[in-house]
Amino acid sequence: MVELVPSILSADFARLAEEIAAAERGGGTVIHVDVMDGHFVPNITIGPPVVASLRKATKLPLDCHLMIENPDEFIPAFADAGANWVSVHYEACRHLHRTLELIASHGMKPGVVLNPATRVEVIRDILPMVHHVLIMSVNPGFGGQKFIEFSLDKIRELARLRAELGLRFRIEVDGGVAHDTVERVVQAGAELLVAGNAVFGAGDAERHARDLLDAAKR
Ligand code: DX5
Ligand code: ZN
């Protein structure tokens, strides 16, 4: 039920294949790839060429979190690179319904992301289209930030809404997921736990992934 989704943002980018292998040995089952364009968020990371290399380095699903303006323009390139899941921000999509259809039409699992300040109810009508909903529990742009507590209420609200609508999308949480927050996040209803700093921030990603997953399942 609960899966650990290591975010490579805090990994050593010169050793990505080894870092991912270590996180996988520690129990990570999906790899989270943070794509930032320096416009939607105040940071720049990686794009389709790196995803194409990662595709050759792991068999795990690649969960690409697009923190970019005009995601429609780049969706075909992520599909070609081998991305499996693609999530776009509600705040970055003028025509969210169209963008989610575009992701699905390229054979990828569509997801929608909400910034901390965005209410859950705004995505109600498109929920039948998504494979996952990503609740940001920090403002996007950087790893290692402090968990925003009211995200727990949003996770609970989303779980309620899913039950009310009889849907099956998965609930993912991203930002500040670590030893001091993971139990509450799971209790609130999150199933896909993105963790960057807690897995890759201090060396030995295998051990840190395993410890976090153990804490999540406790
Ligand atoms: C932040 C990214 C996160 C980031 C989380 O914009 O979306 O995926 O890696 O990092 P931690 O787990 O360190 O908060
Ligand atoms: Zn992310």
UniProtKB/TrEMBL annotation:
It is an enzyme of class 5 (isomerase). SUPFAM superfamilies: Ribulose-phoshate binding barrel (SSF51366). A divalent metal cation binds at H32, D34, H65, D174. Pathway: Carbohydrate degradation. InterPro entries: Aldolase_TIM (IPR013785), Ribul_P_3_epim (IPR026019), Ribul_P_3_epim-like (IPR000056), RibuloseP-bd_barrel (IPR011060). CDD domains: RPE (cd00429). GO terms for molecular function: D-ribulose-phosphate 3-epimerase activity; metal ion binding. Catalyzes the reversible epimerization of D-ribulose 5-phosphate to D-xylulose 5-phosphate. This is Ribulose-phosphate 3-epimerase. It comes from Occallatibacter riparius.
